[in-house]
Amino acid sequence: MTSSTPATTFADLGLPAVLVQALRRDGIEAPFPIQAATATDALAGKDVLGRGPTGSGKTLAFGLPMLALLTGGQAKPGRPRGLVLVPTRELAAQIEKALDNAALSLGLRIASVVGGAPIKRQADRLARGVDLLIATPGRLEDLINQRSADLSDVRITALDEADHMADMGFLPQVTKLLDRTPRDGQRLLFSATLDGEVDKLVKRYLRSPVTHSTAPPSASVATMSHHLLYLRKPDKREITAQIAARDGLTIMFVRTKHGADRLAKQLRAVGIAAGALHGGKAQNNRVRTLAAFADGTTPVLVTTDVAARGIHVDGISLVVHVDPPAESKAYLHRAGRTARAGEDGVVVTLVTEEERADVEKMTRKAGVDIDGVQVRPGDRRLIQITGARRPSGVPIVAANSALAVGDEGEPKVGRTGRRSSAGSGRRGRGSRSGGAGSAGAAGRSSGRAGAKKSSGGSPDATATSSRYGVGTSGRGSTATPAAGRSAGAATAAPGRGAGSAKTAPARTVNSASAAPGRTAGSAKAATARSAGSGSTARGATAGHGAGAASGRSAVTSGDTPGRTRRRAGRPQGVSGGRNRGAN
Questions:
Q1: From 18's CA, which of 161, 430, 470, 556 has a CA 20 to 30 Å away?
Q2: Are 381 and 484 in a shared domain?
Q3: How far apart are CA 6 and CA 96, in angstroms?
């Protein structure tokens, strides 16, 4: 292991003067220890293995040397010259933001490609040429498979949070991507911990790496205080709410996505502005939630371990393990969201009686040896440690509770139920809610009026045609009969009416265009089935005797004498055709 004496300025590390000036404009004057330790070796073209605690400045430690080494070249379309692989979208966005001004000062183009964002837009960005590409493994592999990206020109590759990528199961994808880069390329690997599967990456891809470690793998940060809060399980929800009601930015960790959504909802119900962040959220939702947290609009962020790394928000003064982490490594990364770059921070873990032994063992392994404190809701010690206070109790409505927002930020209307209005013009979504609804009633009433008008007031024709008088998609029930159709036989196209079958428009018994010899009750009718048929599709009302009887009395213009005799010989109340026996 080599050690390095921190330089006074970035210029002493050998970085270009224009880059140093850009850092100064951003208020960055002197390098952090990890930056001072690694920059010289990275600029010399050596492979570097760096370890530093979360929040120690690893992004600039590998990012600034990469930008300096890429200066003077130009990337070809779809062929980046530098590559940074990261485990999460949030970390990719943070790195791009941290290096954007520095890259601009050197005339370099950087971009990030992550899952959850439109891939075509990312492919178009690569086609314009990118010098330094920041990517999550899965999305980069997708772009390569569709021939939008090629890693043959990559001169220098950095892996940030390599151990986290191993924990998330990304190593197979990472090795495939590294195999696509030139064998003689320079590689930098940075992480808060260097163990387990990371050793395999080091042995396979780094050539005689120079190792720099600026801190032991523990949570022993001088400005960070740790507390175990022992509590009764029935009190956990109330204590969590009182802690969340404090002043200042608070981040709360839970184990599952559902748990994050549930806790955020519970906090809003008692008057606390809280947002949920986890891997199941769309990318634009995650960006909005994180932005609202960073600017203080939503001072409480409830999240899973997806946010334990890669989220750099200044001013987080309290980290709460609502669900204690399962391992010490997760504890370190969660705790690293506070006390960054010398700021003060508090880390508390809520511990129920059954979790006590496991949590104490885990914290000792993480380098945190503390005594726990028993607390109850409103307890004086709880207030001293966390600033807890009683929430207002006035519910806060989530921003997207009344209107869903699509992936591109456009409002979209969810289906709250099928439309029953007769005026709906949406295909296939007409009044399908049954034949006896309000639209059906309107259709029946107008059907009677229209049938009387078209048949000269014949009650028989009216009885049958009224059964079809249900609301339709796009036209509604009308009392004006079309040629050969009753007013009550609402037109089924383009949508399906509540009482219509999956057929062409219904024809009435007195229709001159009806097929010869087919009665109102005939199932062989090419149009909508009879009101007397119990097999009518999708909400057509089953035939009540009046409809069937009236169907028999109507004689179509195309009847033959034989058909008339056969019809006259049938018993009363029995309709002809294949629907005989239908209920």
A1: 161
A2: no
A3: 25
The C-alpha torsion from 43 through 44 and 45 to 47, rounded to 10°, is -90
Number of structural domains the chain divides into:
3
Q: Are 446 and 469 in contact (CB under 8 A)?
A: yes
**Which range among 161-165, 179-183, 322-326, 560-564 shows the weakest confidence by mean pLDDT?**
560-564
Considering the entire predicted model, what is its pTM? 0.57
Is 480 a residue whose pLDDT tops 50? Answer: no
Q: How far apart are CA 329 and CA 191, in angstroms?
A: 12
Q: What does the alpha-carbon distance between residue 115 and residue 57 come to, in Å, rounded to a whole number?
A: 25
Q: Where are the beta strands (DSSP E) in 377-477?
A: 404-405, 411-412
* 105 touches 18 (CB < 8 A): yes
Strand order in the sheet with 110-113: 110-113, 132-135, 82-85, 156-160, 186-191, 48-51, 210-213
Tell me the mean pLDDT in the region 372-392. Answer: 94
Reference 90, options 308, 256, 316; nearest CA is 308
- The pLDDT confidence band at residue 433, using thresholds 50, 70 and 90, is very low
Percent of the chain with pLDDT over 90: 44
| Residue 169: domain span | 11-213
Strand order in the sheet with 224-230: 274-277, 300-303, 249-253, 316-321, 345-351, 224-230, 373-374
Asked if residue 260 lies in contact with residue 303, where contact means CB atoms within 8 angstroms, the answer is yes
Mapping DSSP to helix (H, G, I), strand (E, B) and coil, where does residue 14 land? coil
Strand partners, 189: 49, 159
Q: If DSSP codes are grouped into helix, strand and coil, which group holds residue 319?
A: strand
Q: Is residue 414 part of a domain?
A: no
Helices first, then strands: H and E counts in the chain: 19, 16
Mean pLDDT of 42-68: 89
Residue finishing a domain among 213, 248, 277? 213
